[in-house]
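Check the record.
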Amino acid sequence: MKIVIVGTGYVGLVTGACFADIGVHVTCVDTDENKIEKLKQGILPIFENGLDELVDRNTKAGRLCFSTSLESCLSDAEIVFIAVGTPPDEDGSADLKYVLQVAKTVGANMQKYLLVVTKSTVPVGTAQKVKATIQKELTARNLSTTFDVASNPEFLKEGKAISDFMSPDRVVVGVESDRAKTLLSRLYKPFLLNNFRVLFMDIPSAEMSKYAANSMLATRISFMNEIANLCELMGADVDQVRAGIGSDTRIGNKFLYAGCGYGGSCFPKDVKALIKTADRNGYSMDVLKAVESVNERQKSVVFKKLLRHFEGNIKGKTIALWGLSFKPETDDMREATALVMIDHLLKAGATVRCYDPAAMEETKRLVGDSVFYSQDMYDAVLDADALLLLTEWKEFRLPAWGVIAKAMNQSVLFDGRNIYDKEELVAQGFTYYSIGKK
């Protein structure tokens, strides 16, 4: 089977490499000539555990190749996946211009039956827009070539994308014809053989599933952050509360960790897009509006604790940041709490020393030389008046606290992800702050 994946960002590249690894011949297409040239050289545009080896292995095997020309790939393809970006528009809704550009190119160049699948996260109704765009181009060419559209949203977690793709808890596929279902069943047969669930449904339901899933997870995070903030006021411990409610099988224990806000390429964007979709259809998603509001507020919680500790004035203070990416195991800085924190700190007159195992270059691209980029976690705390843990990378879990205390001006730690033991830190002479505890 030969497929084309348009877009070599996070979703497109992971999807292409993984499909190639199960024996499919994949061509990944992107209009960015520089990105394609680098991919041909084995230089990846994103950081994802194991992806470089996967791309290298399948490129050498001839199952994975890269191109800037979608037109030249259509004659041999059976399926075209659209995996381009859908960035938020000015009003927060998903911008579909790149998706529809691909559809237009397909319609203007296809010569035989194709199945066109939206892999990008798109609002309900997008597949029909893709279908109409393709049909318009075919009509203009006076061709009666048949085609199908389908929806196959991704549910990949950054940092664990390859394992998520290869061992999914479910694969959601929206179709409107038996031919499309048969073709996608053949593509996903290796997963069916391993008893993974491939859920076929109508296209609008598949499109909605992606937004509903991310919005539910975001809701759980914001809910627990609200509980954490109330715990502090009432003298309760959010970790004990989490254990108390997470043991309820109706609730479960996932995504119940309090912290300093969620970020990334999915949750913030998808919550906004679903809110706007509802608004356009005359319905107000009040719960999701609250989820979004709570999360924006939570990104400043650690900064407010820092200000209280220094009695409202951190001008001239040196603040160390551990963790910049929105989550561990990725260099993704989209909607990261660290960006909000850096902005707050610089406006308040502080000097910022930061360290992240993967996201230093991306941070520098976004904020320039306004902060000091440290060589490692110990370099970051040199002469610091306070240390802020924002991303829970594994290498931050068991540091040499004695070394850190000697390197800092003041032994003050703000644990934005609740990964440390308060008693241990206090015994080491630290003043310790966390989220949702006394």
Q: What stands out?
A: The first strand starts at residue 2 and ends at 6. Residues 299-433 form a domain with the Rossmann fold fold (CATH 3.40.50.720).
